[in-house]
Every structure is written in C-alpha cells, then in structure tokens.
Amino acid sequence: xxxxxxxxxxxxxxxxxxxxxxxxxxxxxxxxxxxxxxxxxxxxxxxxxxxxxxxxxxxxxxxxxxxxxxxxxxxxxxxxxxxxxxxxxxxxxxxxxxxxxxxxxxxxxxxxxxxxxxxxxxxxxxxxxxxxxxxxxxxxxxxxxxxxxxxxxxxxxxxxxxxxxxxxxxxxxxxxxxxxxxxxxxxxxxxxxxxxxxxxxxxxxxxxxxxxxxxxxxxxxxxxxxxxxxxxxxxxxxxxxxxxxxxxxxxxxxxxxxxxxxxxxxxxxxxxxxxxxxxxxxxxxxxxxxxxxxxxxxxxxxxxxxxxxxxxxxxxxxxxxxxxxxxxxxxxxxxxxxxxxxxxxxxxxxxxxxxxxxxxxxxxxxxxxxxxxxxxxxxxxxxxxxxxxxxxxxxxxxxxxxxxxxxxxxxxxxxxxxxxxxxxxxxxxxxxxxxxxxxxxxxxxxxxxxxxxxxxxxxxxxxxxxxxxxxxxxxxxxxxxxxxxxxxxxxxxxxxxxxxxxxxxxxxxxxxxxxxxxxxxxxxxxxxxxxxxxxxxxxxxxxxxxxxxxxxxxxxxxxxxxxxxxxxxxxxxxxxxxxxxxxxxxxxxxxxxxxxxxxxxxxxxxxxxxxxxxxxxxxxxxxxxxxxxxxxxxxxxxxxxxxxxxxxxxxxxxxxxxxxxxxxxxxxxxxxxxxxxxxxxxxxxxxxxxxxxxxxxxxxxxxxxxxxxxxxxxxxxxxxxxxxxxxxxxxxxxxxxxxxxxxxxxxxxxxxxxxxxxxxxxxxx
Length: 765
Description:
By secondary structure, the chain is of the alpha/beta class. Helix content is about 35%, strand content about 15%. The chain is built from 25 helices and 28 strands. Helix 4 runs antiparallel to helix 5, helix 4 packs antiparallel against helix 8 and helix 17 packs parallel to helix 21.
C-alpha cells in the first residue's frame, strides 16, 4: 500500500488522500480548499489523475473541507461509489446542493456587479452537479467492515466532532491504514467523545488544534452568558456565524440551557440558515449518535425563529432591540451571514461571536487576527462591533485530547503522518507527540507517493509480541518497556538524538545530501538564482494595502500611526513594479534556452516578494522552479508557486548557499535588503577569490543599486581592484537582465565550478 497526500498539507482545508494497493485506488476525503486566495484557486486545478481511474471515495464526515469537491470530481468523470456513514450521507444531501447553489449565486453576483476578473464568472460547480453526486453515496454502519475496492476493506469508527463523523481504518492484506478524520472533544455539548483509534501500521492524524490547549474545568456556557448580558445591556445584537451542521445546534442547546437556568434574559433567537434548520431535523432523526434525547432535541428548538426564505431573511434588517442572530457560514466565507455582518458589523453596540475554527485567509480568520476592515460583496466594511472568539464551542480536539487519543492505541504505528493543520499547529503537535509518547510523527510531502516507511525506505519486519515469545505477564511488561524506551529507537528515527549539539556535523552532511539527491533525480542541472526583497508586493496587493490604509486614516486623520501606515503603503505601491519585473524574468528564463541544449531552472529563496514573483513566472508556463527556504525565528512559508518535490527547508545558511551555487549559471538580484546583499556579496567574493568560476551577476534597477553599492568608492579606497567592477552588470528591465546573461554565454563565458566538480557534467556553451 502507498499513499499520496493531495491536500490538507500545511493547511486545514482540502483534505484529499489517495491510497493505492495492488492497482486499487481509493480517495479518502474529497474536500474544498478554503481560506487564502492561493488555496481557493487550487479548487479550479484539475485532479492530478483521471477521476475515472478511482475505484471509490471514502468520506470521514460531511464538512465541506472534507467533502465539498466531490461534485467537481463526479462532474469530471468519477463514477464509483462514495462510502460514508448514514448521518454523513443525510448531511451531504443538505451541504453539497447548498454549496453548489452558493457557487452559482456568487458567480451571478460577480457578473451583475463586475467584481470578477473573469468574464463571465463561472461557478466551481452547480447545484445540479451536487445533486448528481448524491446518487453515488453508499452508507455504511459504524463498526461494520465494508469492501470498498478489490481486497481493500473499510471500517468506520465514531470520531465525535459532528453528526456521522468517523475515523476510518482501511485494510489490505493485513496492513492497516487509519485516517483520524476530524476528532471531536471529550466534553462537547452535543457529540460523544471519539472512540479509541483502531489498530494501525500507519496512521494519519489531523492537527487543526495541535498548538492549543483549552482550560479544563471551564464551563463554556459562562462566557456565552456574560457576552449576551453585555450586548443586551448596551442595546445591541449578537451575531454568531456558525457552521450549519453541529455548531448551530450546539448554540441552540447552550441557549436553551442558559434560559432554563435563568442565566440570560429571554431575547429573540433567530436561526437564519435553511440548511441549519434542516440539519436540526437530522439531529432529531439520528439522536442515537449524539448526547441529546429526542425530547432534548425538541426543547432545543423551542422559542427559536427559524428563517428559511430569502425575503424573510432580508426582513431581519428591520428588527430592533437586543437579539441573537445565528447564521452560516461559520468562517464568514459566504452565505446570508455576510449580509448580516455588513449591517451589524459597523455598529459598536453589537457583538460578533466566533464559535469554531477560523482558517487563515477567511474573514473569520481575519477577525481573529485583529483585522477590522473586511471586504463584503465588493465593498470595504469597517467592523466596529466587538469580536469575541469563544473557543469553548469548537468541535475540534485540542492538543491534549489529540495526544490522549493516540495513547489509547494498543501498539504504536510504524508510521505517523500529521495533516489538516497550519504549520505552527502541526509542528507543535509533532514535538508534543515526540516528547510525551516517544513516537516519530512526520509532516508528509504533497503529491508524492509514500510507502509505509516513506518514499524510499524498506519496511522493517514487525516484531513479535513478548507473549508470543513465551514470556510471562511481568516479563512481557519489562520487554515492552525496553522496546518503547528511547534507546531502542533506531538512530535515524530518533529526532531528539539527531537534534543534539554534537551531531551538527551529521546534520550538515544530511542537509547537503538530501537536496542534492532530489535535485539530481529531478534532472535540475543548471539554474539561475533570483534574489530580491521579500517585502515587495504585487501591484494588486500593494494597491489593496494602500486602499485599506487610506480608509483607516480617513477615520482618524490625525493618528500618526495611521499616517505612517499610509506612507508605507505608498512606498509599497511605488516598489510593486519590481514584482512584475521579477515575474517577467522568471517567464523569460523558463521559456527560452540559455544556449544550444541548455535550459535554466529558476531557483530562489522560496519566500514571498521578488522570490515569489520569479517562481510565479516559471509556474505560469508550467515549468519547474526551486525554492531553498531557511528556518527563521519568524517562520516564512514557501510561496505557492514552487514545484512539489523541489521545495527545500534548510537549518544552515552555509549549506543553503552551497546549493544555490552548485548549479548556478547566473545570479540576478532585484532591489532588496540584508538577505539580498548577503547572497550578492558571497557570490562576488567567491568569484573574486577564484573559488567560483565567473558567471553573470546582474543587478536589476540601476538607480537603486548604484545608490546602495558605491563600488567605485571601494576601488578608490583600494579595497577592491578596478577589474572587480566587471563582476557585475547593471540593468533596468527583466528583458535586459536575460539578454545580458545570454550574451555572456554567447561570448563563451565559462560554466561554474564550486570547490569541487559538480554532481553532473556542465554543459559547454
């Protein structure tokens, strides 16, 4: 068996994992990417293999980040069964058509108001696409094995979280892969705790709240009651964006309990979400799968005004006085709640309560991060209402609960992969698992086939149990303790051991070997290194930043901080053409041969700004590009335009510099700061001292560079020679930079050699 992660790597959305065994192909989850635009754009990318080649899809639960791309997969040719639990099937009957309807409405709105760059704007998929996908759903009872492909059996185990959510065990010839799905909490208001994980040789664990630990013994009803009293006392409304499935029902139950206990005033409660209303009916139907009795479910809805029709939703703008309005979506990504937010958000008497995970890049994520100016239906809307993040209502297990769930395994898995989390959350959970359980948890690469022990390692034989060797119970316990001790972990699997100070030389060697081998295997021989400022924004982002800063300043014209923010944004707009220059250079270097038989690959530091622009130029042509990222105190994520398998992360600047120059045929520097100067002077020093054969070093933006580097002054002072001035060339455009590099090699310039012969023969121009 092997697995390929097609989503939910470094993000909490887009869950899609491809499992392959003896020719059978099963997709575990088929989720939408949500949040940042760069993630949402991935929903439009074609599936990386023919959908018709899939035997089946297995869904852990109904949330759209796990199921919402299914209509597109079916539309594009998938015809196999989709296995899930019965409650999940019923919820998908609500969620998927609603999602298709929202995509259509968003496209229609964009066409009416001209808010899309595409003419005409098209929906990702339609309501009809979603309805057709429902025909392929096959429900499976919990704890009942189901063959989902030839020789491949699935077992669904309750995971808490939401109605019907499951952990899935897939078994093939005795090898067991377990996918946690999204795990629920021990003390959720509605859902029972997740059951113990099934046994597994390999386990894929979500890490959404991998860096969060909730306070224990705190009643989440207290915070909600206090907030309701505060809003009622100032005569405002409480707007609660809530997922239609799970969080909306949890809130209704919380409000019912508070009212029954006399802890809050009897305010009007409105649930404005047709899907949430229908989902509440499903909670009654499937009451055996959660904590509430049928009587409790009925009481949950008492006194609540359920709004289904659009006109009735619009009429809510006329409500006066304190009230509680619950509406979807939970992360403010779309739906009716945006109209309510535009109406209630600018009034400081009102409050907004966020009651679930808010993915970065969503409007909910922006509010959590402190942003108070949101774009709603093409307009910038200031948010004056108070914002409250009530984490006690989240349906996700926190770090402690995730680790405790793993403790319940009878034996440790041979491989443990962490997905479905932001990088900081995943890394925090990885370290916690290592420190407390002694297990090696790994963050998977994306779109790369992985065997049980990784892409290239042979699988180790499984050890027999102590009891099978004839030991009595006390001896077996002692043997298990020995096997589970850190000393027993093979050295190459013991991350804490490899992190020791006295093993730095080993880490340096590995940091050279791994990227070198992967670059060789990818056929990357000749590169052009591109550097420049990480703070350079694209023209679109710079213009948007300026608009926001000016709008903030208009609200407080005498605020020095806001004046400074406008001045900074204006400088960013002025510098944004540099981004387009770097992008054009990336396209030129990727589209044309350097000389006969030699084509360069763009290589950058992998970060934002100029580096992102150069990688994007290559990406737009479908050409590979390389990113050599570096671990920093303030972590910098890879930009989204790097090629999978060619994005590396280094601990040591020295090793990263070596990899930049091992294959370099040219270096192009756009305006930048210390990092850009560091790379530039390293290259110049190496060429000056003959450690690096001469190659073109091109500085784009002559005015900037002449001002930043007074090389003539260095000659006058006698610290460099006059001939050293010939080591650099100043140009003003991407086209001139590329022409300069090609001219250098057309005139017979040498190839580079760094310290020792490079791993592949250089091409002679």
